[in-house]
Design a protein that fits this description.
The chain is mostly helical and about 100 residues long. The protein contains two helices and three strands. It has helices at about 20-55, 60-80; strands at about 10-15, 15-20, 85-90. Strands 2-1-3 form a three-stranded antiparallel sheet, with helices on one face. α1 (about 20-55) runs antiparallel to α2. The radius of gyration is 21 Å and the shape is rod-shaped. The two termini are about 25 Å apart.
């Protein structure tokens, strides 16, 4: 097994080691992807609301129907697009 220095093992990205320069980059990517998923769910809600308004002529159940569509869209996106989990590893205790 290859021995690595502490900066090379500073982050854990989905179960694999990442260096001190790649770890923050993956963390930023993960946060951006999470924000994008939330944005897609919001746009899906607004689109379902607009279509429901046009199709059902502004009946009271349109908001609930749009909410159900947005929840289903969010769950579907969570199954197919998963942001990487990035954690910072604790440094090894120093002997001495």
């Amino acid at each position: 097994m290859k021995s690595s220095c502490e900066p090379c093992l500073a982050y854990d990205v989905d179960g694999s080691a990442a260096c001190a320069s790649c770890g923050p980059r993956e963390d930023d990517r993960s946060r951006a992807l999470g924000s994008a998923l939330l944005t897609f769910v919001s746009v899906g809600y607004l689109a379902a609301l607009a279509v429901g308004y046009l199709v059902f002529r502004a009946r009271p159940f349109v908001g609930g129907l749009a909410a159900v569509v947005a929840i289903a869209l969010g769950r579907a996106l969570q199954m197919y697009v998963r942001p990487p989990i990035v954690t910072r590893r604790l440094p090894a205790p120093r002997a001495g």
